[in-house]
Batch of 2 targets.
Target 1
Amino acid sequence: MDVNTNKIQATDFPGQVHEAPGANFLVSTLDDVINWARSNSLWPLTFATSCCGIEMMHVAGAKYDFSRFGFEVARATPRQADVIIIAGTIVNKMAPVLKRLYDQMADPKYVIAMGACAISGGPFFYNTYSVVKGADHVIPVDVYIPGCPPRPEALLHALIALQGKIKAGLTRDQLRDSSPLSQ
Amino acid sequence: MGAASLLVLIFAGIAFAGGGISIALLFVKGSKNAQKGQPYECGIPSTGSPWNQFNVGYYLFALIFLIFDVELVFMYPWAVVVKKVGIMALVEIVIFFFILFMGFLYAHKKGALKWM
Amino acid sequence: MFLKEYFLDIYKATKSLLTGMKLTGYYFTHHKEILTEEYPENRKNLQLAERFRGEVIMPHDANNEHTCTGCSSCEIACPNGSIKIISKFDITPEGKKKKAIDQHIYHLELCTMCGLCVEACPTDAIKMANTFEHSVFNRNHLIKRLNKPGSKIREGIEE
Amino acid sequence: MTKEELKIQILTLLPTVSFEETGEWLQVLVAAEDWKLFAQQLHTSAELQFDYLFCLTCVDWKTHLTMVYHLTSTTYRHNVVIKVKLDSVNPFIETVSDIWRTAEFHEREVFEMFGVNFLHHPDLRKLILPDDWIGYPLRKNYEDPINMIKL
Amino acid sequence: MSASAIIFYCISTFILLTGILSVTTRKIFRSSIWLLFSLVGIAGLYFWMDMNFIAAVQIIVYVGGIVVLIIFSIFLTQKAGEQMPKAITGRKVFSILSVLAGLAFIYRVISLNEFHPNTTTVVNANVSEIGTQMLSTTEHGFVLPFEAISMLLLAAMIGCIVIAIKSKPE
Amino acid sequence: MFEEVGTTTEGDLIINLGPQHPATHGVLHLVITLNGEIIKKVEPHLGYIHRSIEKMTESLSYRQFIYVTSRMDYLSAHINNHACALCVEKALQLEVPQRAQYIRVIMDELTRIASHELWWGAMAMDLGAFTPFFHAFREREKINEIMEETCGARLTMNYMVPGGVMVDLHPDFQKKVKAFIQQYKAKIHEYDELVTGNIIFQNRMKGIGYLSAEDAISYGCTGPVARGSGVASDIRKIAPYDVYDKVEFDEVLQTEGDSFARYMIRIQEMHQSIKIIGQLIDTIPDGNFQAKTKAVIKLPKGEFYQRVETARGELGVYIVSEGAAQPYRIKYRSPGFSNLSALDHMVRGHKIGDLIAAMGTLDLVIPDIDR
Amino acid sequence: MNEVPITHILFVSTALFFIGMYGLFTRRNMITMLMAIELILNSVNINFIAFNKYLYPEKLDGIFFSIFIITIAAAEAAVAIAIIINLYRSHHSIDVEDAGELKY
Amino acid sequence: MFSLEGITNFIHEWLNSHLSAIFALLAEFVLVGVAAIGLFAFLGLVLVWMERKVAAVMQLRLGPNRLGPKGIFQTSADTLKLIMKEALTPDNADKLLFNLAPFVVIIVAMLILAPISFAKNFQIWDINIGVLYVTAISSLSVIGVLMAGWSSGNKYSLLGAMRSGAQIVSYELSAGLSILTIIVLTGSLKISDIVASQENGWWIFKGHIPAIIAFVIFIIASTAETNRAPFDLAEAESELTAGFHTEYGGMKFALFFLAEYINIFIVCAIGATLFLGGWMPFHIGHWVAFNHIMDYIPSSFWFFGKTGFLIFLIMWFRWTFPRLRIDQLLNLEWKYLLPISMFNLLLMSVMAIMGWYF
Ligand code: SF4
Ligand code: SF4
Ligand code: SF4
């Protein structure tokens, strides 16, 4: 599916934009081993706001079982978590909370936006007064998974993609400009 | 190896913990922001100091525990020699136990062992 | 009496706890009950439901032709504006101007996979595919153009 | 109880009400002043026993607001819909949260969404919207150019 | 100086240092933690003296019991995060002076005295020995204090409960 | 024992539970006033997932607005859709084909089982037992597979449309559902072994979060919460819709009003749902799965209210129509909203652990409450 | 351990005793005073053990004494804390100066 | 073969023959320290992996399986990541105590290792008060928890620490009493004596019913003392997010995590020593030939096997039961475990005096 991204501009996503901090948190002395460790031990924060959270639970469940990758140690406190999986809609009231949680996480930290809502507000993009049009207005996002909700496999796919990204040691900006993810 | 081994172990502990923590301190530089140092409370700014005086419902348990703890201390020498001393030791400890058990029953009756 | 109850309590409690442990013990020793399907390894033979709505696609045949007339029914049917039709005017051989599809733009990042657009399409030009591996690092990559570059509308579809 | 019987019963409680004939349930129009007392009577009256408020909401008709109360009785299983017209500029009405406790939350919601003031409500604060929210989003004239993108 | 002596001086310094911190720090919770370290140090001293049993008892009762109780009571009665008020300077000076004077005096008395062990027979202070003596009814036995202790503990327990329950509003 | 220390407000600890908290199942924010471990007050703060669905649906057509409601109570997605479809049909006075009615009811009940499964696992997890969660997901996955095959989605279905259902059943549907019922009956006793009978679990649940029948009515509780207090409130019995009047099932009632009663209600409801499905699955009539509707649906002027029984209680859809293609106003009366309001009343004087247990048996879905 | 003269051990215990005394003098908070008392009791214990070890190695009396002291210290601490908390409840303060006007 | 005893002797002799006595001693100290750290790291890695695997299989899933065979390197990756994770200290924490707490916890865990007999004659210090020493030191660990909870400046932490304090303190009693039941039989607190006394059979078999009751109580109490589910109130996830270590991240958190597992290992080792004969192979009274065959299995295997079994038991509990509430937890101790273990002790002492055991 070839899309000319130069020609089509991303829809201009208005809405109250919350300033996101810079994305320069990766340690400069990157080392393959450390990246290996980091990529294989992504502990998610238990953060599920709505429907997508159920699919996230399914990923934790027996059939999909993300513990195979070592992700099962879901931590309730941001101090111990490595990755936020934003599973669900972010509304204006929640945005500062999300920001605070992200800020309180210890570096290095990663963000996955799961589902249409987290990417862009999805089903609630038009005619709603309270939905943040995309979690990346609030915090920087590493991987986007479209779908409403995405299949559990899609989340696994995204996690593997994130692993690949960490292993490569690329920063968020470098990756954003790279070609679409393919497997 | 004797008691000196305790020192060795203490140093081993310090080395282990200190080594682990200091690596992160030395090599990982984290991002700074105003929120980071705030206490975590499910993403809501915390109100009030956590160090307010605090109603400890368990305090009476600790009191009674202390008494029993001391009792336990006396039991150790007793237990070691009970086989040697024989029936006399049993009699003595039964008296000892009995008296304390009265206390226990009293505490129970008074509801001191009921939580709150 | 009191003692009897006391011990009965203990007995009952122990029994109920052991029942639970028996069950988990059973699963611990019976590994064939494990349900896990290993996703990235099983991609080859992963059977997804035919009807699973993973994204909207526009099938093209061997001649790079599709059946979309650019009628915009899908755009109207979509509850949250995930589809934008950009039309152009073709010059037919007879020299007449004719409205045709230029770009069928589909916002995968907005789409809620409700399938209303497919229902609405009069020519069955689009359908839901059951693919799901869409993760990207850049949100812009989710904006797709459904009609392939250079594709044409199949003959005989118009009205 | 059928609609007709209900009508008679209700008229004995409060003769000033009027009825609307549409809909599957009896719709009663009450004046805002009478509402509190009437509600109490509906709740306590032995024949009616409307002890269960299952829906409380408000509709903005641009010219005025209408409070809509859906009541049912768990003993007799008859339903009634009460409507109270309110001024759209300065709407206020007595709370019923002391009669049906579920109304407390529902009224708070209506308060923030429509700006209806519930007199004597125990805790009339914003429930759903952020505390610093301005405007009543479910009103028809609500505009939010920043957050609301029109399709 | 042998290794053993060095260890002794280390432990002693630790005890005294944490002891001083315990009585001077103005944060009450820290004060209790320093006390705890001091007590642990004393247990270390017992270990050093090969009095293992006493050391263990020290840790069990003091550290595991009393300090925990003190910490609980701190939670219960204090705004533990706040600093305690500074002691009045006059009193502080007076205390330091009197304490130093007392220390000097006593230490002088101690150093003047000559301590000599009056026997050379050594009894192994192990648990079984302690147990035997504790349970023996002979004149060197401690069975009477042992049983008396149980009464003491009973009294303490009842006392605690009475005091604690008395204030229960009923 | 030492309440009086804390009766002075300085002894109280105000603690926030949520919005990001493992036990609030989403983003409920509870402000708890604690005295020691004893709860003095619980104050729910909502709106962390308020997606303005009511406002949004005012600008959607009657075909489109159904899909948003799947996102409200996403665990009862089918039932939500069903309610909307029914309301539109009621307004249009549209006769739905028998086949569609059967399919809808079967789907509803499957949804109910799936929802209760998730509740069971999540509640056990709240109480600290992790294994039941995974065991519950085993059955849930099965239901999801069945749903996916027919409806094309796992969670947010958008399967019911005004006039029937969107597509016909998958040919394998009946076979799979029967297999599922078989498997389910074989496994259901494990639930009792693992959780229900467990002494720790019973002690955690019995007598906790008591709600009397009067309070349940006054707080507008519905669904298992009300039935746990002995209030008959099953819409499927009170105002049967589709083919619910043709099937035989019991409305489960318990009178204790505590958490354990609510727990038992849900467990038994799963059995009842199985019973309903068992009655219907073999007798799905042939015929159309969708009645003919106009391309643009316009409701007559008026007000329409439709109640259905979701897994959490009574869902009401209140449509005010001005005769246009879009509703003038829609109000969703969500079961969780009322059930939540009883929480404070239920847990005062209990401990934090009890709050979690009581909240677990309320089975809250926050997007349903916030809408 | 025989290289360390007993006087040094006694110095430690004496110093600890006076540290405790200092705490007792300067602190006005009952709990901290209790802590100071614990320090004092401990200094006594050290003495007992040291004497037992150095001067009367044929007996166990020192050990027994210190065990009993520890026991009594525990009982004392328990009762003291019960009293302190009780006092706090009636006076909302555990400052000794405030407790001066104890009524009962 | 795998006899650890031989290795230690060899090292001892080698060092003494090549170095002067002082340096030999120092070298041994260093070796012990390194060994202890190594054991720590090893135990942490293996036990966490084991827990995850046990949990996974009981929950019908696979568990970590992508790093190394059966995912054995998963915990290594986790550790490495935690080491390289930012270790932050909250602004309003009591910084000194906040950073001291993990040290306290780890040192306490280290200290308890001293008297544990890992194999025949393989022990750091055969202290004459063996088990008493273990009880004493382990009661220190509550201080680490209280420090951590208090100094974090976080309400969840504080609540968790309080709970943990009350709980550990209570369960120490019944754990102590059930240890005493065996001490009555052995007549010595020394670990080596206790193991030696089980030469002709383990106490759980020789000691009849009281020994079994004591064993059960010991297991329950030690589960509670190590803050494990169903007694994990201190870090009750669904109530207090992460309990007393809510504010800890990175390596500091890892130390708490590690200490928890080390503590489990230690209590299980003590349980194995007291009730299941420590490193003593499975012997039956006078069956000389059978005993001889059993002796061929190295003693370290026996020790780690038994300890591993007990650890598995505790994990089994965790993945089966819901959590108790705080008052129920204290009730269980004060109403059931404590009186029962007191009477059990008396019963056992009667048996010991009468010689009614094998
Ligand atoms: S993307 Fe869809 S499924 Fe996910 S949270 Fe949003 S509405 Fe729910
Ligand atoms: S599937 Fe639904 S949301 Fe997606 S493009 Fe089609 S109509 Fe729009
Ligand atoms: S896809 Fe179908 S509905 Fe959409 S513009 Fe093309 S022909 Fe029309």
Target 2
Amino acid sequence: MLELDSISLHFGQHPALTGVGLSIAAGEQIALIGPSGSGKSSLLKLIATEYQASSGSLSMGGLNPDTIDAKALKKWRQSISYIPQHLALIPNLNVAQNILLGQVGQQSTLATLGNLVRPNQVQLERVHTLLHEVGIPEKLYHRADTLSGGQLQRVAIARALYQKSSIILADEPVSAVDPSRAHALLECLTQVATEHQVTLICSLHNLDYAKRFFSNMIGMREGRVSYQGSSEHFSIRDFEDLYSLQHG
Amino acid sequence: MLELDSISLHFGQHPALTGVGLSIAAGEQIALIGPSGSGKSSLLKLIATEYQASSGSLSMGGLNPDTIDAKALKKWRQSISYIPQHLALIPNLNVAQNILLGQVGQQSTLATLGNLVRPNQVQLERVHTLLHEVGIPEKLYHRADTLSGGQLQRVAIARALYQKSSIILADEPVSAVDPSRAHALLECLTQVATEHQVTLICSLHNLDYAKRFFSNMIGMREGRVSYQGSSEHFSIRDFEDLYSLQHG
Amino acid sequence: NKPAEDAAASTSENTPVLRFSAIPDEDTTAQAQRFQPLADYLSKALEVQVEFVASPNYGASVQKFSGGDIQLAWFGGVTGVQARQAVDGAQAIVAGSADLNFKSYFIAHNSTGLQKSDTFPSDISKLKFTYGSQNSTSGCIMPTHFLMEASGQSPQAFFTQEFGFSGSHDKTLELVANGTFQAGALNFKTYEKAVAAGKVDPASCVVIWETPTYADYNMTAHPVLNEQFGEGFIKKLQQALINCDDQAALNALKRAQLVPVENATFDGIASVMEKVSFK
Amino acid sequence: MDKSLPPTAPLMSWRRGFLLGFILVTAYCLWELGIDFVQLPPSASPYQSAINFFSAAWQPAFVEQNPSLPDGSPSFINRIFGNLLTTLRYAFIAMSMAVPAGLVLGFFASRIWLDATKHLKPLLWANYLAVRFITTVMRSIHELIWVLLFLSFLGDSPLTACIALAIPFTGTLAKVFSEIIDEQDPASSEHIHLAGGSSVQAFLAARFVIALPDLLTYTMYRLECAIRSSAVLGFMGLETIGLAIKQSYENNYYNEVWTELYLLTITVICFDVLGTLVRKRLHRPAPSPRGNTATASIAELKQARPRWKLLPITWWLLILGAVIAWTVGDDLNQYHSHLSRWERFCSFAKQLIPEPVRHSGNWNEALPWLSELWKTDGAQGLHMTIIIATAALCIASTFGYLLAPWASRNIANASPFGIHQGPASALKAFSWRVLGFCLRSLFTVARSMPEYIIAFLLIGILGAHTWPLVIALAIHNFGILGRLWAEVNENHDQAVSRHLAARGATRTQAYLFGLLPTSFNRHILFIFYRWETCVRESTILGMLSISSLGYLISRESSFLRYDSMMYFIGLGVLVVFASDLISVTLRRQSR
Ligand SMILES: Nc1ncnc2c1ncn2[C@@H]1O[C@H](COP(=O)(O)OP(=O)(O)OP(=O)(O)O)[C@@H](O)[C@H]1O
Ligand SMILES: Nc1ncnc2c1ncn2[C@@H]1O[C@H](COP(=O)(O)OP(=O)(O)OP(=O)(O)O)[C@@H](O)[C@H]1O
Ligand SMILES: [Mg+2]
Ligand SMILES: [Mg+2]
């Protein structure tokens, strides 16, 4: 159970989030939609504990990441996989190494180093299977900086899946891939989520995908939650309310 | 008139493009589609002269960028705006400065330097108008690294428009913005292209956009041109040919 | 034969080695090669193991001497005093015969118009002046001593312009000869040799004053030698050096013969050092 | 719709502030030093020394110029190669201590830990300041002084010399490593944090990996410095190439000097080339894996891992070199003295106690002693040192900054940033390469030529005053900054420059607007690092009686007044620590 209670986030005077209140049940699968700059990424970063709220509180299973101790925070973080919009891959490591780093939170430092230098059979096999799932098994040993835009995104997805967590936060995970691949990836994500009772929050600009793969949607506009409900009931009216252009 | 004659591009042994032949008339507006990793970005980089073909030849108005002299090449380059998929913005400069750099090819070094330190009113006003068009006028003086994913993409679009060129190459220019904004942006791009007789080649993963805004499409698969024709005639069959998953 | 081996090992470990260091007053490169004959001579004459230790400057030799890393060293006048002050019981044992009557030259470029005089040339106060290296006896300390005696002022007060430290006698000579500095002080031997070799024209680089003589270079022995090699060893060493007629060994020091000295020989310098100051 | 322009952007930013400050500081130093560069007495023949010196360049010696060597001693060439081997050996030993220590300290001296955990904050800050202070002390004391201190209680074994060399190197490596690490893009390491990884993991798996080319570049450069600083080892009686140069020079054996300089430069270039090859490898994508990994079994997959030959070969060679250096040859840890190390330490430490206290045992007397030293020499020495170091650095960095881009292989190239510029005539391509090569060689020569030689020649040309010393320091640092900056340019992300160049920007524009804004911080990092070294290197300024800290330190040490020597060293440490804090703040603000 993820609870957000009237959360605000400011950068200087600029409010990126204002009074966001949400409660998301374990295992729920939600699409996060809204115009560019409305605060979707900020919200996801906040849940991923990359940002701290300026006011309001966040909690999961009664624990607030701002007040718990370092050990509990580490646990909290391990239980969340996050696919950032900018991917945060390491350009001069190869794909396998990047994906192996998904489990860095669960491992000792020495084990991580060992993995980077010489991954063991079992791990390599899992990485390879994941790469098959996202469709780039042939890139296993390519350096990340030689991949195409969509291939990079898929490495980031594979890394998140490799982590084995109870929450997946995906920030525009399929924006750079073609429709077939996007379908396959979203199917894979939702399937994993359903199978393992994982909470999935996925920001999307493509409403078709949002409607097709997610039963619930949260719409953001100018840092506030302006729509919350099932995808089916998301009407043209709602669309216009959410997306009508502010400028230009 | 842009002519590509059986162009191939290799990275090591890996072929990113194989035998690509195309001819694109001045003022044409074309959507470039195809699965992730099929070579769209490579093709655009090649036309933008960022890569050189391993074999085959490229020419515009009879001029081949590989053989013309440095001065003519500079002209060629100035006549092409390019929005790379990775945007290539400078994180620690502000939005206005990033956009002003769109004209770096047309200016002397000193003038550019002056612009960055203190842009003149006329230029600043043009930049501001462009920012209005892409919907983020309030970000004029914000540093690029404080912008959201979609906002960054829009800065890159504004920079390309600021350049005033006769060809615009756009690599997934609206992948990170919401549907309304994407519509507005594509409308803006095609309108500019129509008004000024600009050739527009725009890679897109969203087929709806491609069909709606572009009358012609080029489909790539595994480094080859596998579809070329009007958007209207792009059938389900064609879609399957182009996008059917190779792996997974 | 196990115990025998042990014994051999332990003796080789405990056999004391006489380590000495020396820096020639000229031609300072390739020290190890140069002093090997002296080491060989001492080793043969005293029947102990002798090892030469190179040092880039006298400061390093003093440090090593006071720490016991070397037990015998060829010092300049000043550094010898420093070493003997640092080590109780250290003795100056020999010096070259000319070293007891050493002197410095004050030289000047002929454009200054200065001529050789018998009294201290006070006119140099307005000139660009250079010493040799900072702890050199003949290139810095003694000239300063005579300067202070004659003028009653420290060099800082005496000279109206900043003075230099060229680093060596050869450099002082070069700098004054080509007019970069107008005057300087150096070891008389270096000057004489350069003139003899035709490297310097005595008319353009004039000796304007000769200092009174003083005792300079000497060989100083560490008292631990007597502990390590047996009572009276220092005496034996002194004798070996005085009696040395091995030309190769003497050549290393560029001295025709060595004569006995004692600490008191250098009392003059010791008292000079207390007075000389660069503040 | 509101079309009016928002209020103008602020004119001052930290970056512009830094540039303005730089100009002001330069102007102030010029004003302090005065601009009459030439102060020669009438009738001086200014170029005589330089002509003597440089005319020997065409006739390097192959036999000893020293006339007083006994017959049958080994030949000059033998001696010099022996010296070079000794130098390499001890440089390897010193570096094999300094690199691990520098990495560990650099790890702790990095800012990134400060943001790690909230409740550990005070502890982390304390650690940060303490480590930074310790590393400052280590590097702000010249090798020569460390050697002096260590000789006093470790004895004159080669190991002592290596430790003395390793300590300031460790301090410098720690500083530069930590700052290179701080300057990396934080996105990837932040991500590892968010996945629950510890700060250490985030550091090792992301930041360190990304920073690797920069770290390597700097380590290779440091190895080169170790070879050049080897004259220090002469203190322990090791005849190294640095000492050979110094002594040949002092004896006016200029032909010998040139042979030795050539040998040193060639060695330096060899290491330079090796470093370049390694960096090239690190930047270029790995060779393609063998076979098709899409269909391969896992066993085949492991086999298919791409392998680079050059990298492991280099690592093993370097490690082997270090092992050989430690094990083969003369015993490293010799001890000959009858005194125990502890006894020596005590007797030396006693000399460090302020003189009045040593006699009376009353520490209250230390204060008047301190203030007396400050009044007579300290204040002025400090002032002069800062002026000289700053002036030298301003000059060096101005010229270095102008030339460094044209020495970067990615820019001085027929296709800058890999963007082709029309069919390159072979001549044009060649000219660019030659330009790059010449500038890099200029940098190499400028930094291989010992500062004291440059200073001496300049004193001949300009007269005996402060400027020759300043310019000598400037020339030496120019060579170092030029190299370091050129390599930052080569290691930097090229994406924006490539984009601009492909849009018709000239070489200069692509550099200025694509590369410089984001690499600015890494550039100023080296300015501060070199400034510190200038303060340290002012020991060469002992050549003139200009009362800089260097002159005071060498004066006090030659009179064996170690107490006041330590006082002046302490002043230097404080200056360097202050500069370190300024550098950290500035770089943080101008991100
Ligand atoms: N570090 C920052 N400093 C200042 N402003 C910021 C920062 N990060 C985000 N913002 C601002 O906060 C607002 C919300 O940004 P956010 O990245 O959450 O938008 P988003 O909904 O993810 O948009 P997009 O769909 O374009 O990615 C934007 O206006 C952005 O400019
Ligand atoms: N610098 C490079 N080195 C090696 N391989 C590369 C390099 N750049 C691209 N490739 C490979 O070339 C192929 C085509 O890449 P490209 O970026 O053109 O694809 P794309 O069609 O733009 O894909 P996407 O839609 O995912 O952006 C990919 O398989 C990619 O891995
Ligand atoms: Mg976003
Ligand atoms: Mg692409």
